[in-house]
C-alpha cells in the first residue's frame, strides 16, 4: 500500500491521516481506534530508513526513533508502529 493510495482513500472516506516524511516504504496500512484513523508503520523499516545512507548508526537511529518519532503526539491521527519481536 502506498502513501498515494492512503491519501486517496482518506480523501474519499473524509478522514484525516498524518504521515511521517521519509518512511513511505514502511507503511503497512491504516488502523482505527474508535472514530480515529491513523497510518500504521513497520518499526523495523522506519529504523532502517533512519540508518540508510549512513545518516545514523543503529544506536543513534533507535534513540532518534524513540524520542522524536514514537515520542511525538500530533492528536488522534498520530501514526502507530508495529513491533515484530524476534522469537
Walkthrough of the structure:
The protein is of the alpha+beta class and 87 residues long. It has one domain (3-82). Helix content is 37%, strand content 20%. It contains three helices and three strands, in the order H-E-E-H-H-E. Strands 1-2-3 form a three-stranded mixed beta sheet. The mean pLDDT is 93.
Instruction: Please provide the ordered H/E string of secondary-structure elements.
Output: HEEHHE
- Work out the number of β strands: 3
Percentage beta strand? 15-25%
Q: Quote the distance from N terminus to C terminus.
A: 27 Å
The biggest sheet, with number of strands, parallel, antiparallel or mixed sense and barrel status, is: 3 strands, mixed
Q: Which spans have pLDDT < 50 for at least 5 consecutive residues?
A: none
- Major beta sheet, strand line-up: 1-2-3
Keywords:
single chain, alpha+beta, 87 residues
How are the elements arranged and paired?
Layout: H1 3-13, E1 27-33, E2 36-42, H2 43-51, H3 58-69, E3 80-82
Parallel strand pairs: 2-3
Antiparallel strand pairs: 1-2
Helix pairs in contact: 2-3
In short:
The protein has 87 residues and is an alpha+beta fold. Helix content is 37%, strand content 20%.
Amino acid at each position: 500500500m502506498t502513501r498515494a493510495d492512503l491519501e486517496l482513500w482518506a480523501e474519499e472516506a473524509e478522514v484525516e491521516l498524518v504521515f511521517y516524511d521519509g518512511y513511505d516504504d514502511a507503511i503497512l496500512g491504516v488502523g482505527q481506534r474508535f472514530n480515529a484513523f491513523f497510518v500504521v508503520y513497520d518499526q523495523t523499516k522506519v529504523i532502517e530508513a533512519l540508518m540508510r545512507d549512513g545518516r545514523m548508526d543503529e544506536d543513534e537511529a533507535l534513540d532518534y526513533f524513540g524520542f522524536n518519532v514514537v515520542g511525538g503526539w500530533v492528536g488522534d491521527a498520530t501514526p502507530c508502529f508495529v513491533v515484530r519481536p524476534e522469537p
